[in-house]
Amino acid sequence: MRGVFLIPAVIAGGVTLSACAQNGEQTVERAFQDVNVVDESNLNDVMLTVADPNEAVNYFNRALKAEPDRIDFQRGLAKSLVRAQRLSEAVPAWTKVNGMAGATSEDKVNYADALIRNSEWDKAETVLDSVPPTYETFQRYRLEAMVADANKEWKKSDSFYEIAAGLTTRPASVYNNWGYSKLSRGDYTEAERLFDQAIRQDQSLFTAKNNLILARGAQRKYTLPVVPMDQIERAQLLHTLALSAIKQGDVQTGKQLLREAISTHPQHFEDAVRSLNALENA
């Protein structure tokens, strides 16, 4: 009688083992799927940061061929095209992102950014106007300020720059852009203040240093400000100051500054030499 009951017991055991094996395989498969999702997400991030932008474009194009409805791949492609400076391709790529299910306000702002880079100011303004007012980010207000500048809506511009500066821990570029806006309006004193503020936030921002010299030169301040600079930067800033002096009609001061720039530069300063020769031969 024991034999009679033994066979069903063995069969039942086999069924149980088979079910355990199937469950185990499914668990392992799900685990590998989870790992693949994590790896894919990490790879997407890598492609958007350290990878060569054109390699990233190729990667996301290949990914979209396999899964054309994935908005994260389309978004990655659009961002990579901007990084690669392929703006004529980036704009339609962002257009497509914003037409897909799951598009966000951030996607609209990035679309507006691509349009501005491609000099499509009117369309960028329309896109920004479609972003809900509750969506308040540094990037949104930075772009709003740039559009207001382009429209010469100075009160709006100042307001947007101020908001943008308060929404980031690195406002140097905002102060630099704001200062350039003031410079273009002829408000040189305020421009000088904003450029100085930009440099205080980021001492490596040479563009702000050069703009500061332009603001000072426009006021006939022909001495270098007390800001951090290496020897090459000092020579370059002296050259900018010299050109500002010449533009103001102070030619002799300009010549003196050019000579100082040439003697300061650790290598041969071709641009300054050419400018001085042109003045000497005029």
UniProtKB/TrEMBL annotation:
Keywords: Signal, TPR repeat
TPR repeats: 37-70, 172-205
Top-level taxon in the UniProt lineage: Bacteria
Pfam families from the UniProt entry: TPR_10 (PF13374), TPR_16 (PF13432), TPR_6 (PF13174)
Residues making up the signal peptide according to the UniProt record: 1-21
InterPro entries from the UniProt entry: TPR-like_helical_dom_sf (IPR011990), TPR_rpt (IPR019734)
Annotated protein name in UniProt: Tetratricopeptide repeat protein
